[in-house]
Design a protein that fits this description.
Porin; 2 domains; about 25% helix; eight-stranded antiparallel β-barrel; alpha+beta
Amino acid sequence: MVWRPGALGFAAAPAFALIALVSLVGSERSARAQCVDEELKQDLVGGRHYRGVQDRLFVKAFRHELSGMGGWYAADLYSSSFIFGGAYTFHFSEDLALEASVAFNRFRSRVTDSYERRYPQIQVQERADRPGRQYFGHLIWSFAYGKLRWAGGGITRFDWNAALGAGVTDDDTSQGLTGSFGMGTKWYFGKWFALRFDLRDHILREVLLGEEHLVNDIVATGGMSIFFPFGW
């Protein structure tokens, strides 16, 4: 058998052509897939930017907050009454703040009113209807944030917070410190104004008709807040 190089090269030419064609088709598919991947990546990045991965439009960190509030005080031993007051809050981060508040309400007991009407010679307390004051300090933790898009296209930002603290209930029948915990929400408009709604549970000891009671008084308030500096 005689080996001829030219014959081998002629026979192998179709195989080389087929390999080159397959490589070319594969390169086109790879380039097309890479192009699709790049387009998909740009769409995803654009969608992620639209969903709001950006700086907060309402900044709380290192700002002061002044609030005016009013609502309803539901007491265990006394009749429910109105309550109003104010609070100062310093936000040392976006999530944590310290709040100092003062509130005014009235303490009136229908039980003692009935007792005094039945036994007028016995006066249970100096006045059946008397004012009360409450001084509290709370640690505020904002644990959840959200946004609400209105029908007109505007977006309102809000958060939910938890409060834990203690204070003094300035009343003749209260004994010792008053513990307090609860939840609230704040809705932010513009860069310095907010609406707030709070629900707090006050735990304290009170003495009524010679008996000591551990009570849970529920306080529901709403109000408005101003943040400063204004330009942040």
